[in-house]
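Journal club prep — side note

Before the paper discussion, L.F. wants everyone to see what a predicted structure for a comparable chain looks like in token form. Sequence:
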Amino acid sequence: MHRDEEKHWLGNTVFTIGESKTEYEISFFSKNGKDWDYSLHFAAEPGVEEEFLQLDARLEEDDDLYNDLLDAAIDSIPE
């Protein structure tokens, strides 16, 4: 997580979920550090599109999962 030249927050987290070996990357963006947008993509090799779409839908509904991933990105801020 870092701030760009316009002082917007940018960060990302690479993760797997469940039994899947597919690595995903979620990128976060915020102008104020409170309201966050995200973009989900495959971290390395493309995987199954249906699983990707299911995960994206889950992120929209599962606040705990979303917040855990956001916290992981925030925790990467150098002190």
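L.F.'s comment for the group: Residues 3 and 61 are 27 Å apart (CA to CA). Keep this in mind when we get to the figures.
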